[in-house]
Write a structure and sequence with these properties.
Structural class of chain A: mainly alpha
CATH class of the largest domain in chain B: Alpha Beta
Oligomer: heterodimer
Order of helices and strands of chain A: HHHHHEEHHHHHHHH
Helix content of chain B: 25-40%
Bound molecules: adenosine-5'-diphosphate, magnesium ion
CATH architecture of the largest domain in chain B: 3-Layer(aba) Sandwich
Strand order of the largest sheet of chain A: 1-2
Radius of gyration of chain A: 19 Å
CATH superfamily of the largest domain in chain B: P-loop containing nucleotide triphosphate hydrolases
Number of helices of chain A: 13
Helix content of chain A: over 70%
Order of helices and strands of chain B: EEEHEEHEHHHEHEHEEHH
Largest sheet of chain A: 2 strands, antiparallel
Structural class of chain B: alpha/beta
Chain lengths: ~300, ~250
């Protein structure tokens, strides 16, 4: 517990200080990894803890990204950067979740996928969202008195938000609520039989995960200064799903490791060959075959790391 | 009615069809507070289906159910459970990857208070932990609290099955063949355990073992082809020629 906290703080300090040692490209890569890490962790709350495999998580990443883009363009400031994107994403999750949690398994996967593709279709066609070009030229605002146009300020802001998100989820999965989610994952009907209003817990988990995905989307918009309909695309959900599985489901930390492995591999391989998806696919198959518990599972087996 | 005033559970002409099959056919029951009632009958008589109807797992085709004087017909299982009606299952139905303590604690925390807490620690809810330990004590699993449920022996899993139902602090406990598949020694231990439960917990128990029934039950209801064939004390039911016929007939 203490060792884990110490490790977390060391990693945090290293991430925060990274721009002092590294060039622009590695820093951008790290920032991407952190953003996708939050996104993948939020999905892991659903997949790994509550046992709800969603294939539509891109909806909330996209809503967060678009709301940040619209709001920051109109009113650059704290509210637009920090509050509106997760609120909007949470609202979207409330609506989508309300319908989706009534079904489970494959039907849940298909329903969440269908909802996210609806968002894609809307974003792709709506002129006020920039249609297929999306929204570009989003400014980096001054947030809680910090001017994010400054690259180092932005980096620290990003690292701090990611750390807060990770700590929040870390608490949640260990809270009474988190244990209820695990119970639902293990045996949903018995949870009902002992008196849990299972659907309410599932909906709350869905909304929390959606809000954090919205934070990730908003950070992404602020990182690249734009957002396109691709944020909503099923591949966005699929990549997050891969990251969670590669890292090890139900571990939170694995989601970040998975995001790191995925993005590093992508940037490494795609600089050599166009066929990076093929290489990624092969790597993924090998991982699933030989390390079914993901990176974290493999580490636990080798190093004897405890759960 | 037995002494003690209004019945705790009333079932009125409960019926459930599965297609052409009528699994439960016009069953009426009155269970008094503090009563220990056994339900017996051959396999396929509709005993488990009756439990499913009472606990809201299945909707009745006809009839109604009153608990504590209030209708509970058609309520979902979690609402029925919160009213104070808890069940164990014929087929062990646990949280296999969680520990014994966590199985019991989840059940004990199911009253909802605190279970929505996102940031608090588990230890900050002492009530459920205490009730979980009491339930562990009652079913004889105090030494096994940190063991994963899937690693328990079959007999211990059956004990935990009852413990999870008990940990919700029910007014009415419905046990579906708690001794199913147990060795004679395990059955005896389970019987002693059930006898040791506080009298405030009203008991409705489906049981095949006649020794268990005779030592535990105040009254016995015999189901046959979904209907109540006979009802009375163990001695009365045993002396009923129709019951004798059914049990001889089914071997
Ligand atoms: N969900 C169901 N669908 C169809 N038939 C069922 C279902 N549940 C029980 N039955 C049938 O109802 C009858 C009574 O079953 P059950 O209540 O399990 O009997 P018991 O518990 O007395 O052995 C059996 O013939 C069984 O096959
Ligand atoms: Mg049965």
């Amino acid at each position: 517990m203490i060792a884990r906290l110490a490790a977390f703080l060391v990693l945090l300090a290293a991430a925060a200080a990274f721009p002092l040692f590294a060039g622009k490209y590695p820093v951008t890569l790290l920032q991407e990894i952190l953003i996708w890490g939050v996104f993948a962790m939020s999905l892991d709350l659903l997949m790994g803890y509550a046992g709800m495999v969603s294939f539509g998580h891109s909806a909330f990443f996209g809503v967060g990204g678009y709301v940040a883009a619209l709001a920051l363009t109109a009113y650059p400031g704290t509210l637009s950067a920090l509050a509106l994107p997760p609120l909007a994403a949470g609202l979207a999750a409330l609506v989508i979740g309300f319908f989706s949690i009534r079904v489970s398994g494959v039907y849940f996967i298909m329903l969440t996928l269908a909802f996210s593709q609806m968002f894609y279709a809307v974003a792709f066609q709506a002129a006020w969202l920039g249609a297929e070009d999306g929204i570009v030229g989003v400014p980096r605002a001054s947030v809680v008195g910090i001017n994010l146009a400054q690259p180092m300020s932005f980096h620290l802001y990003l690292v701090a938000l990611v750390a807060l998100g990770a700590l929040f989820l870390w608490r949640v999965v260990r809270s009474p609520f988190g244990h209820v989610l695990q119970g639902i994952h293990e045996n949903e009907s018995r949870m009902q039989a002992v008196g849990y209003a299972v659907n309410r817990y599932k909906l709350l988990a869905f909304v929390i995960a959606g809000m954090l995905a919205g934070v990730a989307g908003a950070l992404y918009t602020q990182l690249v200064g734009s957002i396109t309909p691709d944020a909503f695309l099923w591949t966005t959900s699929g990549e997050a799903l891969l990251m969670v599985i590669i890292g090890g489901t139900g571990t939170l930390g694995g989601a970040v490791l998975g995001a790191g492995a995925f993005i590093l591999l992508q940037s490494l391989v795609s600089s050599y060959t166009e066929r990076w998806m093929l290489i990624l696919g092969l790597t993924f198959i090998l991982l699933v075959l030989f390390a079914p518990g993901g990176i974290v599972g493999a580490l636990r087996g080798r190093v004897g790391l405890r759960a | 009615m037995t002494a003690g005033g209004a019945p705790l559970l009333v079932a009125e002409r409960l019926t459930r069809h599965f297609g052409a099959l009528t699994a439960v056919n016009g069953v009426s029951l009155d269970i008094a507070p503090r009563e220990r009632r056994a339900i017996i009958g051959p396999n396929g008589a509709g005993k488990t289906t009756l439990f499913n109807l009472i606990t809201g797992s299945l909707a009745p085709s006809a009839g109604r159910i009153l608990f504590d004087g209030k209708p509970i017909t058609g309520l979902p299982p979690h609402v029925v459970a919160r009213r104070g009606l808890s069940r164990s299952f014929q087929r062990t139905n646990l949280f296999p990857k969680l520990t014994v303590l966590e199985n019991l604690r989840l059940a004990a925390a199911a009253d909802g208070r605190g279970s929505y807490s996102l940031l608090g620690g588990i230890a900050r809810l002492p009530g459920p932990l205490l009730r979980a330990r009491e339930a562990a004590e009652a079913v004889g699993l105090t030494d096994r609290l940190q063991e994963q449920a899937s690693r328990l022996s079959y007999g211990e899993q059956r004990q935990l099955e009852v413990g999870v139902a008990l940990a919700t602090s029910p007014k009415l406990l419905l046990l579906d063949e708690p001794t199913a598949g147990m060795s004679p020694e395990e059955t005896l231990r389970m019987t002693r355990m059930l006898e040791g439960l506080p009298r405030e917990v009203t008991l409705l128990i489906i049981e095949h073992d006649m020794d268990v029934v005779s030592s535990l039950a105040d009254r016995v209801t015999v189901l046959h082809y979904g209907e109540v064939l006979s009802e009375g004390s163990f001695q009365e039911v045993k002396a009923d020629p129709r019951v004798y016929e059914v049990y001889l007939g089914s071997g």
